[in-house]
Each structure stands twice: as C-alpha cells, then as structure tokens.
Write a structure and sequence with these properties.
The protein is an alpha+beta fold. It is 31% helix and 35% strand.
C-alpha cells in the first residue's frame, strides 16, 4: 500500500528538482531547475533570487508544481520512483526553517544574505506519487506530510537528538554510511535527523539513509541506532 511515507522518502532524498511556474507574460508553463531542502513535514524550502524568472512568475501566481525524482539515471527511467508536489509558495523568514536549506546547500551561505535573495516554502496541497509502472496515486496534504507532533519534536529537539546519538552511538553515522548504504569513508558525520531518515555528511558530500518506517520520537531512533551499531 502506498503511503505518504513512500512519497516523502523521494522528496527528502533529492536535493534539487524541476519547478513549474506560470509565465507572468503569457501564462504558459515555465519549468526551471532549482535546489531545495525539506522542512520537518517534508515541505520544500527554496532560496530564490528576485531576478530569477521563476521568482518573478511567483509574484503573479504562487501556484507551482515541483518534480522530485530518482529515475533519470536508470536504463528505463519510467520504471523509477518520482513524486510531484503541488501547492502554493510563500516567502518565509523563520531562521530555524531557513537554516535547513543552508545545511543542505552550504555554498549558498555566500549569497543568502544578499538583498535580492529570499527563502520560500512550498505549502504542499497534494502530491502525485509514481513508484513505477502501474503504481501511481494522488495524496492530499494530510496523507503526504509527516505527523505534525512528531515533526515538531524532531524540530525542537534536533540538537539534543544529534548530541544524544553522537554520545551513545559515536559510530552511528559511519555505520549508516558503510553498513547500510555500502559507501566508503571513515569520517561520516550526522547532519540531521527527521522522522523519515538521517542525512549524513563526508566533507562536501551529503547522502541520506531513509528509515524503513517512520520514527515518531528520539527513543525510536535510539533503538534503531543500537541495532546497527552492535
């Protein structure tokens, strides 16, 4: 059975996508590349320049679609998973939320404070998840987004969660990368935890390990860490 968890795993595992806006001059569809991160409910966060065409389009019509995909590298891309998120984009200023973008895209710190750059969030109204041939479903925002109480827990207690994991299971990040993702490297760091997975970093490389089921609280993650660090 397809759930919002399947769709969120795709959205969270991507760090860029194709955003479709409505051209402000002739109302034709306009698609452009964009970098993004996700907030704790898996809604995309962007950093846009006022000079960009898609930003100027948003000033006239805030409705957008964002395609997130893990299919284009496959020999048969149509068999790969993807999700299209649909909703309205709004400008945001919450520092804690905006920092999630800079955490994923550190190079953006060079220009994030420029006067013509602003942070935005896509408030997801519905999502279209395609898991491959014959597996497609529309989800409303309630079914797509992660549990609000759990999301708030991960947001508010993020620093404590990372500290607790690093203290009790110092090899957690490395084991996720090497044992579960089959990657190389010794100095993997835990970048972020949310209910759907963990982001790991090695130098400038960022990867994600998605959980098999949604985690609701720190104790769930600690139990998981204990298993893989045995």
């Amino acid at each position: 059975m397809t759930t919002g968890f399947d769709a969120r795993k795709i959205a969270r595992s991507c760090r860029s996508g194709a955003i479709a806006t409505t051209d402000r001059n002739d109302a034709t569809p306009y698609v452009s590349f964009c970098a993004y991160a996700t907030d704790y409910r898996a809604q995309p966060i962007f950093l846009f320049s006022d000079l960009a065409d898609h930003t100027q389009n948003l000033a006239q019509n805030a409705k957008v679609s964002l395609l997130c995909e893990q299919a284009s590298h496959l020999s048969n891309p149509q068999a790969g998973p993807r999700v299209t998120l649909v909703g309205e984009v709004e400008k945001i200023s919450d520092e804690q939320v905006c920092s999630l973008f800079l955490q994923q895209h550190a190079s953006a710190k060079k220009y994030a404070d420029f006067g013509d750059f602003n942070f935005y969030r896509l408030n997801v109204e519905k999502a279209h998840f395609v898991g491959g041939f014959g597996r497609a479903v529309w989800l409303d925002s309630k079914d797509y987004m992660s549990d609000s109480a759990a999301s708030l827990c991960f947001l508010v207690e993020q620093a404590e969660m990372v500290s607790a994991l690093n203290e009790d299971f110092p090899d957690f990040a490395r084991m996720c990368a090497i044992k579960l993702l089959k990657l190389r490297g010794k100095n993997w760091q835990l970048l972020r935890i949310d209910g759907d997975g963990v982001d790991l970093k090695l130098a400038s490389k960022i990867v994600r390990y998605p959980f098999e089921t949604e985690m609701k609280k720190l104790s769930d993650v600690m139990d998981f860490a204990a298993k893989i660090c045995r």
